[in-house]
Please model this.
Amino acid sequence: MGNVQPTIVPYEGFDVTADIKSIRKACKGLGTDEEAIIEILANRSSAQRVEIKQAYFEKYDDLEEVLRKELTGSFENAIVAMLDPPQVYFAKELRKAMKGAGTDEAVLVEILCTATNQDILSYKDAYAQVNERDLESDIEGDTSGDVRNLLISLLQASRDEGYEVDEDLAEQDATALVEAGEGRFGTDESTFSYILSHRNYMQLQATFKIYESLSGTDILDAIDSEATGTLKECYITLVRCAKNPQLYFARRLNAAMKGAGTDEDTLIRIIVGRSEIDLETVKDMYLEKYDVTLKDALASECGGDFKRLLLEMLH
Model:
């Protein structure tokens, strides 16, 4: 949407042979040269890192296994995440969110409610390849009710992704939303879900404006008072993404660092996942919203090699 900037672009002087030699050297002998590993991997695009992984395997060994032995904790998790193509990484994250007892619905919401149609299709393919399972069936089995209906609707990847605004449709949708929500007792979830998962972002912005003038309430405030639980999170995420996806991610990063303990998995997902899309713009939004740079926030919340890696990826 609009003019967004990444922090990581393909490295111009890319030399896969030199890179695998340097990584091999960094992992050999006593102790690991983490800085050398960070220096290389945080300055290569995902496609280049996949090439490094492949070349390393052909010449030496399975790079992921080698690094898993050498590294620990969130630093290890972040490095391993960087060795997968984005769609494979997200497919693994989706599976992880649904495996075992209980479902981490916040992760499903963050990944699926912010995805483009193309993202959704690539996640479904990668999910089938990596997990030998069907993403839609797993979501259907692991969620229920309105949340399930909404996530399944998003998995159809049928959002209009144009930039045209149809004012009459915006009027119609805004009226339907008012009638579905505040206008009567109980919220008609299917109307909210359909509109939020099918209309393009510009169209939704126009709809929210009309909604506010019709109802006298901001759409986010209405959702806050009308919806609960995971469904509320879905709606808020979809609305925030329609308004400004980069600000949504800045908020997620801030929430991951707030309070006691840091949600390092979320930091990895967003920083690795957005680095080649819009992370530079997310940094701008973070500064604008919180009056502190994302770098400074991370530096005070994270430590060691994990901190060094994230800061290097932020450039």
Q: What stands out?
A: DSSP finds 20 helices and no strands in the chain.
